[in-house]
Amino acid sequence: AQSVAQPEDQVNVAEGNPLTVKCTYSVSGNPYLFWYVQYPNRGLQFLLKYITGDNLVKGSYGFEAEFNKSQTSFHLKKPSALVSDSALYFCAVRDQAGAGSYQLTFGKGTKLSVIP
Amino acid sequence: ETGVTQSPTHLIKTRGQQVTLRCSSQSGHNTVSWYQQALGQGPQFIFQYYREEENGRGNFPPRFSGLQFPNYSSELNVNALELDDSALYLCASSLYSNEQFFGPGTRLTVL
What percent of chain A lies above the pLDDT cut of 90? Predict the structure, then answer.
């Protein structure tokens, strides 16, 4: 079975400061990892993914994520936070070896608040 | 915005009723997945359709069923609605195993 943990329900950061949203995962094989963002009353918006290759993945809106296999982590980062980054962030995982289903397993989400 | 659309936007039903939710995939996508997102939780996988057949199912009872049509659009049907079925239902489309793109969701309230 695959699982995702987002240990922080909420992260507060001052505008202009760097931000980190944490994610750890568990899969039986090699992972596909994703970050999505959700604004109020909206669906999920794709930010970035890790499939293979470089451990530092760059995505939309200046976000990036670092894959760490030994720590089974995939933390989301941004060098300088904007107030408009305030939203709910979800980490998701899929087992590359999972034949047939492309089921994503999501964490519970982390609410990011960027303070002006 | 993605090219995934869902209807209706909101829906109110009573316990025991049946509901059908609809999803149109993004152009070029052939796989549709459905998720249930309860308040304050992450999305939970219901099932996925590929080539008009169910291609995987999460831990949901058989009263949750679906269809995929030749144009890759999809329906989610829920029979015998329960109060706990109140949630945001998200449809996501993808091309095979690539990243999934989500629609805006349908907010279902069961009274």
Answer: 78
